Amino acid sequence: MNDTAELAPRSDYDSPWKEALEGYFPEFLALLFPHIHAGIDWSRGYQFLDKEFQQIVRDAATGRRYADKLVGVHRLDGQPAWVLVHVEVQGEPEAAFAERMFVYNHKIRDAYGVPVVSLAVLADVDPRFRPAHYRDALWGCAIDFRFPMVKLMDWDTPERWAELEASDNPFALVVMAQIRAKATKDAETRKAWKFRLIRLMYDRGYERKTILELFRVIDWMIRLPDILEASFLQELYTYEESKQMPYVTSAERFGIEKGYRQGEADLLLWQIENKFGADTAEALRERIASADNDSLRRWSARILTADTPEAIFH
Question: Is the full-model pTM beyond 0.85?
Answer without folding.
Answer: no
